[in-house]
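User: quick one, sequence for these tokens?
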């Protein structure tokens, strides 16, 4: 075009383009100069940069990612989000480091794909680290992209989902990389309790990088390909002379069964992403959102005389010392096939799960007598307390099922702080202002009775089944203390008749009613509907001080 303008400017003033010859000459001249058009050159360059961004680290590194059984950052987002819903941010944003030859290695997008999309039609924000670009290492630019979508999620009120697959800080950038981590951590804190934060660890997550997922609400991991640790096997070997593999030190099995860091583990990326979609379906978009309402299955909607409710009276053994699986009881109270358990392999004596009642999300907390007789211990207390606090932060009603013989005794529990950790659960239930419905299924002994969302901790509706035993302790232990071993059998029978039932609690108003098991679902449904408009005035203060 510049050549064409120069050509026209040099024409005689009396010349015009009205002449067919001149028109033909002008068009020919313009056409021959297309290759020098700056706009066209920019468009070509833009297409090349966009293509480079899509390819990440290149075809060879993508192939290596697939060889490890891992999907790429973009493939993961395609599975996580509804088809065609993803809108990317900062696809062309690049790192600014010039040290150590980094200026010649810049890749558009800088190793993380960020943006927004939808899951089953509901808005979410996402970032997905790309291990094919500098091993997914975090740079100043990389961190800026993550913080940007986290802020956007908080501003508009939508969950943030992070897909972690990173070797850690980008060493070439030094302090800028560390500053980037701190910026991400700060935004994690600012978003906490405002929008749900979900982390999927789908590759390495080591060093300081672990603390961002640790501050999110839920962590999913992939078996054999993901791991989390503050110091790796090499450092452990140097400092302690221990030899340990990455998998044993911080793999999915370790964190879902031993440490309690992660909530669920899956066989591969596809399963983990599918589970993340399922989890989002239970969650409100933000603390101010009313939450999703699913269609209640026809068979469970309505009458308490359905076969699902009727079977409840057969699930709990008449012998109070016989174990049973509490999840079977839960499944008969909530909507069919709606139970989504979290941390099922850690602290198995406590069940924490999302479920639905008449299509609406509830948070279920329950002792499980099939493990440790349902006792409260350190891990169970921490597990339940965190879940209660999440439910309270996002306005999710809490359904508590109680069968607890007390706190687990033992030197290890005492020395490791059962007093402090048990207080966390007590504090969480007492602090919660969401609707709270509690059902005492069988045992509710001692301080554990108080802790498990009792009427004394602002429980809204508290029921007991006829099989409930609400007392300071079991009959045998109580009689041995009271009567000093005299007439044990006779006094035990008398104590059992008087205290091993819910009558006294009902007379004191500590339970609102003693209900038949088959009426439980109908009662829970009605109570949760009644409590939707519940409001409690908070005590003015900056914040409470839970015993961390």
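Assistant:
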């Amino acid at each position: 075009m510049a050549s064409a303008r120069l050509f026209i400017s040099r024409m005689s003033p009396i010349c015009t383009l009205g002449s067919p010859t001149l028109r033909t000459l002008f068009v020919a001249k313009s056409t021959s100069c297309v290759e020098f058009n700056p706009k066209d050159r920019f468009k070509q360059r833009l297409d090349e940069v966009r293509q480079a961004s899509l390819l990440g680290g290149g075809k060879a590194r993508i192939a290596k990612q697939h060889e490890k059984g891992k999907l790429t950052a973009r493939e993961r987002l395609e599975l996580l989000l509804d088809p065609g819903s993803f809108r990317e941010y900062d696809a062309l944003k690049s790192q600014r480091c010039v040290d150590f030859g980094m200026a010649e290695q810049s890749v558009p997008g800088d190793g993380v794909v960020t943006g927004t999309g939808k899951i089953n039609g509901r808005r979410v924000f996402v970032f997905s680290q790309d291990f094919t670009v500098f091993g997914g290492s975090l740079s100043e630019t990389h961190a800026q992209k993550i913080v940007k979508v986290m802020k956007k999620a908080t501003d508009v009120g939508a969950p943030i989902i992070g897909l972690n697959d990173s070797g850690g800080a980008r060493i070439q950038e030094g302090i800028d990389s560390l500053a980037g981590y701190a910026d991400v951590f700060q935004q994690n804190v600012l978003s906490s309790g405002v929008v749900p934060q979900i982390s999927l660890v789908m590759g390495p997550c080591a060093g300081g990088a672990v603390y961002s997922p640790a501050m999110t609400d839920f962590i999913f991991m992939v078996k054999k390909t993901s791991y989390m640790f503050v110091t790796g096997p090499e450092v452990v070997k140097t400092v302690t002379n221990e030899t340990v593999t990455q998998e044993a030190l911080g793999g999915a099995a370790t964190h879902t069964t031993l440490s309690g860091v992660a909530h669920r583990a899956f066989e591969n990326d596809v399963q983990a992403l599918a589970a993340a979609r399922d989890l989002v379906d239970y969650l409100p978009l933000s603390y101010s959102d009313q939450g999703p309402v699913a269609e209640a299955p026809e068979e469970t909607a309505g009458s308490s005389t359905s076969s699902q409710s009727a079977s409840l009276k057969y699930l709990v053994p008449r012998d109070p010392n016989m174990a049973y699986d509490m999840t079977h009881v839960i499944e008969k109270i909530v909507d069919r096939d709606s139970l989504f358990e979290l941390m099922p392999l850690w602290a198995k004596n406590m069940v924490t799960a999302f479920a639905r009642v008449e299509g609406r999300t509830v948070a279920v907390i329950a002792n499980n007598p099939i493990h440790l007789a349902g006792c409260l211990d350190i891990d169970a207390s921490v597990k339940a307390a965190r879940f209660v606090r999440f439910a309270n932060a996002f306005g999710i009603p809490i359904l508590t099922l109680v069968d607890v013989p007390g706190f687990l005794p033992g030197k290890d529990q005492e020395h490791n702080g059962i007093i402090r950790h048990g207080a966390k659960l007590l504090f969480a239930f007492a602090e919660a202002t969401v609707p709270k419905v509690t059902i005492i299924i069988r045992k509710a002994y001692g301080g554990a009775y108080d802790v498990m969302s009792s009427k004394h901790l602002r429980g809204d509706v508290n029921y007991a089944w006829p099989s409930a035993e609400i007392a300071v302790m079991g009959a045998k232990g109580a009689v041995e203390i009271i009567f000093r071993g005299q007439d044990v059998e006779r006094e035990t029978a008398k104590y059992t008749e008087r205290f091993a039932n819910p009558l006294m609690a009902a007379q004191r108003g500590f339970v609102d009613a003693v209900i038949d098991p088959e009426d439980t679902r109908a009662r829970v449904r009605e109570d949760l509907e009644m409590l939707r408009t519940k409001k409690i005035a908070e005590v003015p203060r900056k914040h409470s001080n839970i015993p961390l």
